[in-house]
Structure formats: C-alpha cells, structure tokens
Amino acid sequence: MTKEELVVHAARTEGSVSGPAIQAAGPTTTCTSTTHARTPAPTALLPPRAGNNRAARRERWLRANAETVASQGVKVWVKARGRVPRFFAYASQRHPICVLKTEFTDDDATVLVGFGPDHTQLDVTSVAAVQAAVDAMRPGLEVLEVAAHDWMKDPLSRTTWMTHRPGQLTRDLAGLQQPAGVVHFASSDNASLWGGFVDGAIESGLREARRVAAELAPAG
Ligand SMILES: Cc1cc2nc3c(=O)[nH]c(=O)nc-3n(C[C@H](O)[C@H](O)[C@H](O)COP(=O)(O)OP(=O)(O)OC[C@H]3O[C@@H](n4cnc5c(N)ncnc54)[C@H](O)[C@@H]3O)c2cc1C
After folding, report:
1. Cβ(201) – ligand 1 distance below 6 Å
2. The domain containing residue 213 runs over which residues?
3. Spatial distance between the Cα atoms of 162 and 51, rounded to a whole number of angstroms
4. How far apart are CA 125 and CA 148, in angstroms?
5. Per-residue pLDDT of the chain (220 residues; tens, 9 = 90+)
6. Best substitution site from 61, 194, 197 to test ligand 1's pocket, by max atoms within 8 Å of Cβ?
7. What's the rounded Cα separation, in Å, for the pair 80 and 168?
8. For residues 10 and 27, what is the distance between their CA atoms, to the nearest angstrom?
C-alpha cells in the first residue's frame, strides 16, 4: 500500500475500530480520560426536561462547545513491514500509544491502528516517535509509514473525539436532544448510549428519523 493509499484507506475507515471493542476493556482502558459511564441513566435519574426555548437551547450548545471535550488523545494509522499476526494490546495512560491493534493484513505489510491518551506525548507525524511507542507495546514491528492528524493542535478543531466531562450528561443531555421546531439534532454528541463513537452518530440519526416520521405521520 502506498502512503496515499494508506491515507485514503484510513480516511475511508475512520471509525472502523468499533466502540464496543474499546469499551470492552472497561476499567483497564485508561487510554482516554473517559469520565462518564456510557450506559444511559435510568429514566428516573434523568433531570427534569430542561427548558427548550431558543435561549436555553443556544446556551446549552454554546456551553458544551466552550467547555470542550475531556479527551485529549490522538489516533494513528501505522503501516508495518510484513504480515503481522492479529493482536489487540492495551497499556496504561502513561504510554504514548495505549491501544494498538492490527486492522488490515497483506503479505508484505500490515496496517495497525493506535490510540494515545495525550496528543502532547506523541508526534504522530514522526515515524521514529511512533516506532518507539509501538516498540513499547509490541516489540519487533518495523514501522514503515504513519498517517494521522493531531486534531487537538488543529486551530479549526482544537479538540478530538467527544468524551463528556463530569456532570455534562446529567445537566445537558436531555436538553441537547430536543428539536428546535422542525429542526432536529442528530449527533454522536447527543447520543444516549454511544456518544463519541460512530455508533452514537447512527443511534442519534435513528432517534431523530423516528421522531420526524412520527411528526409527519397522519393524525389518528
Ligand atoms: C481522531 C478521531 C478518531 C476517532 N476514532 C473513532 C473510532 O475509532 N471509532 C468510532 O466509533 N469513533 C471514532 N471517532 C468518533 C467518530 O468519528 C464520531 O463520533 C462521529 O464521526 C460523529 O458523527 P456525527 O455525524 O455525529 O458528526 P460529524 O462526523 O462530526 O459530522 C458533522 C458534520 O457537520 C458538519 N458541520 C458542522 N457545522 C456545520 C454547519 N454549521 N453547517 C453545515 N455543516 C456543518 C461538519 O463539517 C461535519 O461534516 C473518532 C473521532 C476522532 C476525532
């Protein structure tokens, strides 16, 4: 795979690492600074439905944006020499890459995906830096190429995948799911279960599509 193909492949498959796979590590997954349980709160524990007037909606979305997300991580695609037997490795948050797994294997090369907890600890543009981080996780691999983007450093992003900060779900989730008239908000950011993952984008899309269908259904 050429570098261009690797980048295109990575872009097409961004999100291919399933949330559940990461989630499955439970308490040992110290990679992200995840601070909330992703299981939705029982209905009885949800706050009373917050006001849904224009000012309240605006305040909620602006506040969520200003607070930014809790995660500070990086994701990196790694091309390593040769056919690497499949593996899935975890380490502590003290490692620049703390989740590493094989994704695509060929006879002459293997593409792996890695996640780091702190973007300042890994220069994802440096093959040498990624090689050192990979060595700590899985010695014996030769890193040929890397493809990544440090979204935390990007002035147009300044953030990365969504991980709620403590209290945000309890305070705002119900309100963030409210439509504004005929405008509905489907986003991984306001998903009930898999917020921060592609699964959450799908979940919220289904939720809002059902609401719209119900609103358009003939009365009676
Ligand atoms: C580095 C990184 C790695 C990730 N890795 C994984 C992973 O391995 N597995 C996983 O499941 N998830 C992963 N995620 C999370 C996943 O990518 C997101 O949860 C998912 O893409 C969110 O989908 P969405 O449709 O809610 O929002 P988005 O994909 O963000 O789509 C929103 C769209 O709206 C557009 N937009 C914004 N404002 C406006 C406007 N005013 N007018 C018009 N358009 C607008 C944006 O340009 C964007 O195209 C990762 C995220 C990042 C940042």
Report:
1. yes
2. 164-220
3. 24
4. 7
5. 454 444 344 444 443 333 333 333 322 333 433 333 344 444 444 444 567 788 998 999 999 889 988 999 999 999 999 999 999 999 999 999 999 999 999 999 999 999 999 999 999 999 999 999 999 999 999 999 999 999 999 999 989 999 999 999 999 999 999 999 999 999 999 999 999 999 999 999 999 999 999 999 998 7
6. 197
7. 40
8. 28
Within a domain: 103: yes
Ligand 1 lined by 200 (C-beta under 6 Å): yes
> In this structure, are 127 and 173 located in the same domain?
no
CA of 158 to the centre of ligand 1 (A): 14
Total domain count for the chain?
A: 2
φ, ψ of residue 125 to 5 degrees: the values are -95, -5
Structural domain includes residue 79: yes
Domain closes at, from 148, 177, 211: 148
